[in-house]
């Protein structure tokens, strides 16, 4: 089973998710998204794979979110995806992609729904 974790090692939730994946006997592909940001196309692929919307991937606690006006209801999916692609710190970490789907795993236990 291929599992990809968009990971931030300084985030406790991200570290917990990584541990849960490994405890399931899976060594995931780890993407350090702050060093290797996902492209706009990769973000779109994640959304399709998980049947998610762009707001699911948006880290609303990030100060930049409000500064860019992304927290407003009229903000479009395209605007959110463009912002995350340009500013990877806006990604609501950790994002996990498996054959069962994709999700921003906050709380960490959401990852269990994506594992065998």
Automatic annotation (TrEMBL):
GO terms for molecular function: arsenate reductase (glutaredoxin) activity. It comes from the Bacteria. Pfam families: ArsC. GO terms for biological process: response to arsenic-containing substance. Its EC number is 1.20.4.1. It catalyses: [glutaredoxin]-dithiol + arsenate + glutathione + H(+) = glutathionyl-S-S-[glutaredoxin] + arsenite + H2O. The keyword Lipid biosynthesis does not apply. Keywords: Arsenical resistance, Oxidoreductase. The keyword Oxidoreductase applies. Belongs to the ArsC family. This is Arsenate reductase.
